C-alpha cells in the first residue's frame, strides 16, 4: 500500500539537468512533482498549496536557506520533509535551517534512490496527518459562555475538524465537542480551539489537550479512512 501513496513534492531549481534527474526518480516512486524555477514563485506556491515535501536546490545559497527557514515557520509546512541539493560544504547550514535530508552534487543515482526511499515514509506520514476525511455527523458543541448546541461536521483530520451550521464563534475561543464517530459506539469528547470562522456558519477547530486514548482513537479511525481513500484513488487510476 505504501507505494501507492502518492505525495506532492515542490521542487525548487533552475537547473534543467537537476530537474530532469529528480523528476525521473521521484515519479518512479509515486511522488507528484511541481517545479518552481525561482525562490519567489516557490514562496508564493507554499502560501497557497500544501506539499508533503520540498526539494530546494542551493544554486543561490542565501535564498535557499531563507526559503527553508520560511517553510519551517509556516503552519502548513512546518513538518514537511525538506531535501536540500548542495554543491559542497553547505551541509551544516542546511541542517541548521531545517533540512531533513541532503544530497550533494554530483547526484549519484544510487544515493538519490536511497535518500528518496528513506524520506518517502516521512512524506506519507505527513500526508496522512493532514488528510481530511469527509464526515457529516451531528456535533454537540458547548463553550464557556453558552449552553450546548448542535452543528454538523464537514470533515475531520487527526488534528482538527471543520464544522458547518454553527452559530458565530470567535477565533481563539475554546470549545468542548461531543461526537460519535461512525463505526464506534461510545461518544468521544474533545477540547478544541477555533482557528477560523466565516459568516456562513462554518468553523474550523484544532484539537487541544486531547487524551492519549482519544488521540489514538482518532489516529486509527482517520488512518483507516485514509487507506480506503488511497485504495479508491488507485482503482480510479487503473
Mass-distribution shape: elongated
Total helical elements: 6
Helix content range of the residues, please? 25-40%
Spell out the CATH superfamily of the largest domain.
Answer: Response regulator
Termini separation comes to 15 Å
Say how many strands there are: 12
* Name of the level-1 CATH class of the largest domain: Alpha Beta
Instruction: Provide the structure class.
Output: alpha/beta
Order of helices and strands: EHEHEHEHEHEEEEEEEH
Instruction: Tell me the strand percentage band.
Output: 25-35%
Mean pLDDT: 88
Query: Any low-confidence stretches, pLDDT <50, length ≥5?
Result: 234-238
Q: What's the alpha carbon Rg, rounded to whole Å?
A: 21 Å
Strand count, sense and barrel status of the largest sheet are: 6 strands, antiparallel, barrel
What's the arrangement of strands in the largest beta sheet?
7-8-9-12-11-10
CATH architecture of the largest domain: 3-Layer(aba) Sandwich
Quick take:
The protein has 238 residues and is an alpha/beta fold. The protein has helices at residues 16-28, 39-48, 61-73, 91-97, 109-130, 212-237; strands spanning 7-12, 31-36, 53-57, 81-86, 101-104, 133-134, 138-143, 149-156, 160-164, 174-179, 188-197, 203-207. The chain folds into two domains: 2-130, Rossmann fold, CATH 3.40.50; 133-237, predicted glycosyltransferase like domains (Thrombin, subunit H, Beta Barrel).
Amino acid at each position: 500500500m505504501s507505494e501507492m501513496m502518492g505525495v506532492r513534492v515542490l521542487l525548487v531549481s533552475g537547473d534543467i539537468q537537476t530537474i530532469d534527474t529528480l523528476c525521473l526518480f521521484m515519479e518512479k516512486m509515486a511522488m507528484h512533482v511541481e517545479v518552481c524555477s525561482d525562490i519567489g514563485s516557490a514562496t508564493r506556491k507554499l502560501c497557497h498549496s500544501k506539499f508533503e515535501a520540498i526539494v530546494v536546490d542551493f544554486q543561490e545559497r542565501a535564498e535557499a536557506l531563507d526559503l527553508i527557514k520560511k517553510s519551517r515557520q509556516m503552519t502548513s509546512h512546518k513538518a514537511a520533509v525538506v531535501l536540500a541539493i548542495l554543491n559542497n560544504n553547505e551541509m551544516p547550514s542546511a541542517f541548521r535551517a531545517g533540512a531533513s535530508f541532503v544530497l550533494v552534487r554530483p547526484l549519484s543515482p544510487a544515493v538519490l534512490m536511497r535518500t528518496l526511499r528513506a524520506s518517502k515514509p516521512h512524506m506519507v506520514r505527513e500526508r496522512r496527518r493532514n488528510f481530511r476525511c469527509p464526515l457529516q455527523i451531528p456535533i454537540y458543541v458547548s463553550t464557556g459562555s453558552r449552553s450546548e448546541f448542535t452543528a454538523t461536521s464537514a470533515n475531520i483530520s487527526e488534528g482538527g475538524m471543520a464544522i458547518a451550521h454553527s452559530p458565530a464563534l470567535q477565533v481563539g475561543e475554546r470549545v468542548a465537542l461531543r461526537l460519535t464517530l461512525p463505526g464506534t459506539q461510545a461518544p468521544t469528547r474533545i477540547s478544541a480551539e477555533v482557528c477560523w470562522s466565516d459568516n456562513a456558519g462554518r468553523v474550523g477547530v484544532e484539537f487541544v489537550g486531547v487524551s492519549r486514548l482519544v488521540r489514538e482513537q482518532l489516529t486509527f479511525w482517520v488512518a483507516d479512512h485514509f487507506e480506503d481513500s488511497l485504495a479508491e484513488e488507485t482503482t480510479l487510476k487503473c
